[in-house]
């Protein structure tokens, strides 16, 4: 897929999935605003394996679903 999608389009098309975005365009807070979707799956590990195999220079991995309320995020 060579089409550049906005973050809103990505969330709409790939709801509840992990998404690999090539050359993400970000804002000042480094939040992804748009980019090329290279792969998507409900399986996070599958998306990371694809990122490694594609050897992309710049990419982001997004989750378009809702995080469980009891989930912890480590930065």
List the helices and strands and how they pair.
Layout: E1 4-6, H1 7-13, E2 18-26, E3 32-41, H2 44-54, E4 59-63
Antiparallel strand pairs: 1-3, 2-3, 2-4
Strand content: 35-45%
Main pleated-sheet profile? 4 strands, antiparallel
Total discrete domains: 1
Rg, rounded, reads: 12 Å
The total of helices stands at 2
Average residue pLDDT: 94
Tell how many strands the DSSP assignment holds.
4
Cα-to-Cα separation, first versus last residue: 30 Å
Report the principal-axis shape: globular
Judged by helices, strands and strand pairing, the structural class is alpha+beta
Spans of at least 5 consecutive residues with low confidence: none
Enumerate the strands of the largest sheet in spatial order, edge to edge or round the barrel. 1-3-2-4
As a percent range, the share of helical residues equals 10-25%
Instruction: Spell the H/E element sequence.
Output: EHEEHE
Oligomer: single chain
């Amino acid at each position: 897929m060579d089409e550049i999608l906005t973050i809103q389009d990505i969330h709409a098309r790939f709801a509840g999935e992990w998404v690999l975005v090539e050359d993400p365009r970000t804002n000042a807070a480094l939040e992804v605003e748009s980019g090329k979707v290279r792969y998507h799956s409900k399986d996070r590990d599958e998306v990371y394996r694809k990122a490694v195999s594609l050897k992309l220079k710049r990419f982001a991995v997004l989750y378009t679903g809702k995080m469980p309320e009891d989930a912890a995020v480590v930065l």
